[in-house]
Amino acid sequence: MAEHPIALSTRIIDSGVADVPVNRMDEELTELADGVAIVESFSHSIAVDTGAGLVVFDTSTAQKGPAVVESLRTWSTEAVDSIVYTHGHLDHVGGSGSFASDADARGQAAPRVIAHEALPPRFARYRDTSGYNRVINLRQFGGAATDAAGATERPFLPPSVLDPDLTYDDELTLTVGDVTFEMHHCLGETDDHTWTWIPEHKMITAGDQFIWMFPNCGNPQKVQRYPLEWAQSLRAMAAKEAELFVPSHGLAIGGVDRIRTCLLTVAETLENLVAEVVDAMNAGAILDDIVHSVQVPAETLEIPYLRPMYDEPEFVIRNIWRLHGGWWDGSPARLKPPSDTAVGIELVDLVGDVETVLARARQRSAEGDHRLACHLVDIAYAAEPEAAAVHEARIEIYTARRVVETSLMAKGIYKGAVSDSQKALSGELPETKFVVALGD
After folding, report:
1. Which of 10, 47, 204, 281 lies most in the core, judged by the most C-beta atoms within 10 Å?
2. For position 345, which CATH number holds?
């Protein structure tokens, strides 16, 4: 049996060493306290026994939902009174249909679904941009970036996902059986986030406001994130002096001081990053200056719950700029730039041939200058998008870059570029450049 999540988190936090995975996805159930259980999955599902039915926070994905329900039912066969969506991302709401099916099979009433009032508009946006969202999620998690045709074959938001029955604006307090649930809206990874204080258990369910990695606050393919408000929510949670803290990714944490330290450390990291970026903006710096000068201290990024393994500070910096400064990066040449194709053709013509550009790109890659290498190979790609030599170099250079990256987001995007060129060489793609699709 796997080590108890609280015992494991205690050892990792206290030692500062994460020598085993902190986000386990085996659908194994653990009782965290009397009447509180967690099923660790792609996103976790947390259940509280109220004496008048279960209240469940998040349901994992549509694919994982059946296994999550099956595991939960080894702990309790009580009816699920309510499902609380911590936010509307599919890895948190996707399995809700499995809970409804289970209730139906047991002759129990369907669970009530509770969420913030911004969640239904999110679902509407997912339905409106279904193919678009499938493309970017394929890329983010390492799939092919250009598989747009396949991406639109089925809806991004599964039809089985349950819509909310009850929404709230700022705060909502519910009592189910013997347990009180104080729900709080916050901005952070999303605009529809809910964290919940459960006083009878001195417990917080936090959703994705704490993910055991650097906060997912800069995702290059998703809509706006809110780093300062994210930090404020962590401080509000810390003020509760919880004894049990349960995020929807990563390990549950026990102990007032330990929980408080974790929350305030992440809050301070985000606040410092925002302050440095805004100070630079106030001093007249453009985005390029800021990206290459503002950094989170290396020792901070070694903390077990702040490692840049999913998102990373550079992406958060760009998101802070977007929040405060809009889409223009401050370079006048990039206000109304020429097309990539025009620039590529001009530069290739200037140096004489595309082979010269590819040779320099390979040289820079070998020297470890992956930023410049990728830029050069994509100049060649823009100029001659059908040339086999270009795609061969592109595969080589983006593969090398992917190896040295730490965040899943960067690795996924670079793997998408490799996949595009592999497909182009095999004749699977139309004669066009890859699609860079942004969305949520």
Report:
1. 204
2. 1.25.40.880
